[in-house]
Amino acid sequence: MERALVTGGSRSIGRGIVQRLIEDGYEVVILDRVEPDPPLQTRWINVDLTDTDAIHAALDDVLKDGPITRVCHNVGHVKPALLDDTTLEDFDAVMGLNVKPVLTITKRLVEGMRAEGFGRIVSISSRAAMGKELRTAYAASKSAIHGMTRTWALELARDGVTVNAIGPGSISTPLWHAANPPEDPRTQKIIDGIPVGRLGTPDDIANGVSFFMDRRSGFVTGQVMYICGGFTVGSAAAGS
């Protein structure tokens, strides 16, 4: 059975991704500080993804069983703040979880992908990379994901490895609702601006990940797929 690794796969969007990959027939490994509850048919490893040494130790363990040729970089967090209130400490914290593990893990897994002549790397970005108030650190981290995705797509194409990203729009998760309080008028404005008329779900994102992970998707690389209910299109039209 082919294996896939998902960071932050115990809850919310990550859990939806893991469930879909299990349905697709993969053996899934989760790296997360939180145990899946209720349990999933996966191998869960408790690891602090801001700790590079801990990441390497976890990967040393899972790679004993052979290469992992599919990875979804999902873990991340948001520290909403206006520019004037954004601290370097918060900026470093966001980059430390949202970006650094992507580099660390990919560098370890890509050797096995090259040996297999096949690999799928998918990162969860955000529509916020296109710009959003109160998201200096978060938008910067997701823009970094886009840059790495496009660069690695070029570098790894000849090795049979594709590299893509998904930019979720507004997805109904505890993280989204914490960052967008219901009493804030900007929250309702966001929801009203989604053309399909609803918030997204983790299953919507998982469907996109499933597509990118498929062996039949080998001609798609270096792309950012916005799964946003049409919000990205609507934002572009509103600004024209």
TrEMBL record:
The keyword Oxidoreductase belongs to this UniProt entry's keyword annotation: yes
GO molecular function terms listed in the Swiss-Prot or TrEMBL record: oxidoreductase activity
Species assigned in the record: Thalassobaculum litoreum DSM 18839
SUPFAM superfamilies in the record: NAD(P)-binding Rossmann-fold domains
InterPro entries, alphabetized: NAD(P)-bd_dom_sf, Sc_DH/Rdtase_CS, SDR, SDR_fam
Family classification: Belongs to the short-chain dehydrogenases/reductases (SDR) family.
Pfam family, one: adh_short_C2
Biological process per Gene Ontology, one example term: monocarboxylic acid metabolic process
Keywords: Oxidoreductase
Protein name per the record: NAD(P)-dependent dehydrogenase, short-chain alcohol dehydrogenase family
Oxidoreductase among keywords: yes
